[in-house]
Structures are given as C-alpha cells and as structure tokens.
Amino acid sequence: MHALIQFPDLSPEIFSISIGGFEFALRWYALAYIVGIVIAWKLAVAALKRPTLWPDQSPPMRPEQVEDLLTWIILGVILGGRLGYVLFYGSGDYLSDPLQILRVWEGGMAFHGGLIGVIVASWIYAARNNISKLGMADLVAHTVAPGLLLGRLANFVNAELWGRPTDLPWGVAFPGHAAQDCGQTLGELCARHPSQLYEALMEGLLLGVLLLWLAYRRGAFHKPGLILGVFLSTYGAARFIVEFFRQPDAQFVSIGNPLGLAWQVDGFGITQGQMLSLPMIVLGVIFIQRALSKATRLA
C-alpha cells in the first residue's frame, strides 16, 4: 500500500443549535461566502478611496455605492450559481421535479454560472447608475480571489469536489464515496488528489496576489479592462489545468468514458469544467489585448 494522508476529522459545521424543533447550523462553506464578501467589500472601498489608481484620478463609483452593488452581486452569485449548476452539471431529475432547482440548501452551485450571474447583475447596476462598466468590472474582478480561496478551502473541509486517484505521497484518503475502491487492491483506501487545495492555491492565492500587484504596483486600473482580462484568462487557465486532476462529476463518468469527458472524439476530449473555462481564456485575452492597445494609442 502506497503512502497517503488520512483525511482529518473535520466537520462541515462550525456549530449547530436547535430552536423550537428546528436545527440551525453555520457551515464552513457559508462562512467562506460571508468572509469572502466582506473582504471583497473592503478591497473595493480601499481602491475607490485612492483616486490616483484610476484614469484621470476618477474612480468609476463612490465608495458608499459598493454596499448597494454587493446586494446585486450576491443575488447574481446565488441565482447564477444555482442555475449554472442545473444547466451545466444537472441531471434529468430537474426536469421531472423542477422544485429541486430551488433547494439550494441541498448543494449544487457552479462557479461559471455564478460568474455569469455577477456579470449580468453588475451590468444592470452600472447601467442604472451611469457607471463605467469596464471600470466597475475591473474593480469587482480584483476583489474576487480571496472568496475563491476560502471557498475551495471550505470544499476541502466538506470533503467534496475531490480529485482523481493518485499514488503521489500527498494523496488524501477522503471519506464517503471517495474512499471506495478506485482500481487498487480491494480493501485499500483510495488516495486522491486534494484538487480543492490546488484550486485554492492557483485560483485564490496566486491569482489574488497577481491582481493586487497589477492594481497597486503596475497601474492596471489606468488600462480599463486589463484587470478583468487577467482575471478571466488566468482563472480559466488555472481551472483548465486543475481539471486534469479533479474527479469529474458522476453524471459524465461511464464505463466507456472513465475520464468524465463532456466532449470527446475517439477517446480524446475535454471535461465540462474545461469546456466552460475555454471561453473565459479567450475573452480574457481579448480584454487584455484591447486594454493594452488602447493604452499604447493614448501614450
């Protein structure tokens, strides 16, 4: 039996209380959302209070408007994330029982759907308040990474979205379905890539440091669309890479498709997560190219 790391005894719940026969619990995943939103709020306000970061020393919005914007963004995350999961990863059960779509407490949120929800919500808010859409997009994009970092750490604590089987020394034996036999000797624990931690590092920590460095050290806010482009392309590339190590959703896995490819030709193809990440990479590169070319013409 090769070396592996036993999953620590972690509970998805921080605490729970019972009131009048109803059980209320605070989960690490919910706390990750809350703390991520608070950090994003503080980062946005801090950036808006520094006019020198922006073209013509004119931030795209007032700091006091961030609170209203967050309300729209939270709605976009919840609605977009849930609908995205149903459309991109859901099974036919949702067609036979559409009320399942509303049961967000049972789990099932998709980042790419949440991203679309945030874009739509932010665009509507910008249009209603006569705010520069690219400026606000850059502002929002540079605040997202801490929430992604915390969310992926919460995925690890929840022992969900684990990786493919591995014999590397840092493979983790997750509990539940992840521990079932995965091609090893019957009875052995199944070691898997801790892909949640890979994503926390790449999509959260490294991406967050890069965006803050560009914003505060390289004057990226002076090139509208640059921060947005870097976020889209870098996140998309990071997610595309991690998908090689992440266990695909069960509905895409079959005997003839053990890699869980959502699109394939003669056994070669890409996963659903990679399919959804490719447009992000392309759009990100387009925004970067446009932002840099405009900056060159202005110079």
Describe this entry's structure for a reader.
This protein is mainly α and 299 residues long. It has a domain at 1-28 and 150-195 and 209-249 and 267-299. 52% of the residues lie in helices and 8% in strands. It is built from nine helices and six strands. The strands form three sheets. The protein has a two-stranded parallel sheet with strand order 1-4. Strands 2-3 form a two-stranded antiparallel ribbon. Strands 5-6 form a two-stranded antiparallel sheet. A hairpin with a 2-residue loop joins β5 (263-265) and β6 (268-270). α1 crosses α2 (66-88), α1 packs antiparallel against α6 (145-157) and α6 (145-157) packs antiparallel against α7.
How would you describe this structure in keywords?
299 residues; mainly alpha; two-stranded parallel sheet; two-stranded antiparallel sheet; 6 strands; globular
The helix content, as a percent range, equals 40-55%
Distance between the termini: 62 Å
Instruction: State the major sheet.
Output: 2 strands, parallel
Biggest sheet strand line-up:
1-4
| Total DSSP E strands | 6
Encode the helix/strand succession as letters. Answer: EEEHHHHHHEHHEEH
Q: Structural class, from helix and strand content? A: mainly alpha
Strand content: 5-15%
- Rounded to an integer in angstroms, the radius of gyration calculated over CA atoms is 21 Å
Mean pLDDT: 87
Indicate the multimeric state: single chain
Ranges with pLDDT <50 over ≥5 residues?
Answer: none
Shape, please?
globular
Our count of helices gives 9
